[in-house]
Amino acid sequence: MTETRPMSRSSMSRSAKTDLAISLVLIAAAIALPFMVDSRYILGQIVLALFYATIASQWNLLFGFSGIFSLAQMAIFAFGGYATAMFCFYFGWNVWAALVPGALGAVLFSLVVGLACLRLTGVYVALLTLAIAQTMYLLIVTDTECFVMVGSVCRQFTGGAVGFARFGDLGTRALLRAQWLVGNYAIIAVLFALTMVFTYAIVKSPIGLAFRALKDNPGYAVARGVNRFQAQLLVFGISAFFTGLAGGFYAAHFQAIGPGVLSMSQLMFIIAIVVVGGVGTFWGPLVGTVVLVLADELMRESGEFRTLGLGLIIALSVVLMPKGLVGRFGDLVHWLARRRASPDSNTAVSNIVQSPAPAGK
């Protein structure tokens, strides 16, 4: 039986150095990007991609690192966006003052979801969380009762099928005027960077080790003293804070939030991002976002073949690269490292050929 050895300190150091180098390159690229992109449309799509990457990174934390197959991620995102919009709309708060309370509201919502899933595993968690998300969608779109009169217009408590609009923004329009989109890009890029840094710290911490243990071998993890219920609620809450915060920034960036963010296509796109990039890999959500958003943009004029093309990319990724792009690249790097570390087979063969033959009897 092959013995499984823990990762050595030197290999962990190399991994940390690699992650640091990638982070520095991405930071430099993010700073240079506004000076290289003249099109407002492209910059707007990049901002949207950063939202996708943020949501995907937190779903990856929930499923890829913790093994909880929740389908309520877009519901938590929508809850954060709606809570931020409602604080601004009903109480007249500034958007910046409403962002953190909106994110905390998303955390409370996620804890309710987590409590409902405590005694469930696998597909049952997926079905229950999907049912919660769809119920939230139906409650919003069927809300037709008048809650408050805004001028001569009657508004529903949740905004109904219309949602909320023009409740405030991030302040960049007044501050930067024509360059407000660059300001919003910088803010969302910082949000994504903070999310990734915090996620990295969680994954590398003892808490992250407990999450991975519960995913890989729940029975052994519980036997070693890991409290499954506490860990599950904790990862739900951590993931929900940044997802809800991203929802608030999304609402503020577009100055609108509606039930469309709860659509099944949005949820499937987030899951596809993680699958293509690599489930359970740190950089997978970012790589998957780049690949799928770029592919979606290139096929924008393809009409009905746009969805078919995206489906084909996802199917090929699942069949040919079960570990995703990042996982495949990691396997290639490990293979090259083992090949360099092992003796050269050609040299070994030549030594055998050149060695003198033993004397006959």
Automatic annotation (TrEMBL):
Topological relation to the membrane, as annotated: Multi-pass membrane protein
Signal peptide extent: none
Record's GO cellular component terms: plasma membrane
Keyword Transmembrane: yes
Keywords annotated in UniProt: Cell membrane, Membrane, Transmembrane, Transmembrane helix
InterPro entries: ABC_transp_permease (IPR001851), LivM-like (IPR043428)
GO molecular function annotations of the record: branched-chain amino acid transmembrane transporter activity
Regions crossing the membrane: 42-62, 74-93, 99-118, 123-140, 182-203, 233-252, 267-295, 307-326
Cell compartments where the protein resides: Cell membrane
Pfam families recorded: BPD_transp_2
Protein name listed in UniProt: Branched-chain amino acid ABC transporter permease
